[in-house]
Here is the input.
Amino acid sequence: MYQINLGNKVLYYPSSDSACIYDTKLTEDIGQAGEFSSKVPPQNPLYSQLTQGELFTIFRDGDEFWRGEIREIKTDFAKIANVYCLEDLAWLGDEFLPPAQITNETFAQRFQAAIDAYNLNRPSDRQFTAGYITNVSSSDLCNWTTEYGMSILDSLRECICNASSDP
Here is the structure.
């Protein structure tokens, strides 16, 4: 069973007559931020609270399944809100790292430093936690470069690609 929250309030619940949405579409690709779209009728109790940037969470059987934020809301002639959301992975693509040459760091240290840089000024519901990192590499310490205009997500992708291509 699925439930969708807007912030910490229930936007959709299957057996509810008022907390309803329709024409839902969830797109997920490996290594890319997923997308979610749906239509919210004006009868939904949270209709007036739909705002860009609001946290949007999908639960499956009580567990968080997907999390993102509202990026666009368009209302049609019948006042039905067409809501477009991007997955939380996109947040890392919105933040940029300052250019730097980093030396003598392990992959895990570089990965954690990028996540820490993102989390620094974020509320707890918008933060990431790095899990257990296993890297089989010929060298423990590596050199990393962040270039002007490189997002945190770009930096993490480069770290992963460079670490996996070590002989």
Remarks:
- The helical segments are 89-94, 107-119, 152-164.
- The first helix runs from residue 89 to 94.
- Residues 6 and 56 are 5 Å apart (CA to CA).
- The chain is about 20% helix and 35% strand.
